Amino acid sequence: MARLTVYDEINFGGASLDIDGDIPNLGDWNNRISSFKVNDGSFVSFYDKPNYETGVGESLFGTDHGIGGYMKEVRDLREFPHSLFGNWNDEIMSIKFR
Q1: What CA–CA distance (Å, rounded) separates 36 from 85?
Q2: Single pTM value for the model
Q3: C-alpha closest to that of 73 among 39, 45, 40
Q4: Domain containing 93: what range?
Q5: What is the number of structural domains in the chain?
């Protein structure tokens, strides 16, 4: 089982990509992720720029703590603020596991 599965549509729809390790540049998947599931007790950070850089801060998700802590799955990244006027939908360009 992959540590992380990302989807290019909300509600775990569309094309999917299984990820097992850090990715400094998502390439064809840059700015394409709309929902995801974290597996196996992993924690993952998303960044809005390649090479784990960010203009507005990273977003950390994981399989522990649930609501009020880290979330293991997100059906719609539009619900998670990314900047003053935006959200994380279609904004992820690199991924790092903790």
Answers
A1: 22
A2: 0.86
A3: 39
A4: 4-97
A5: 1
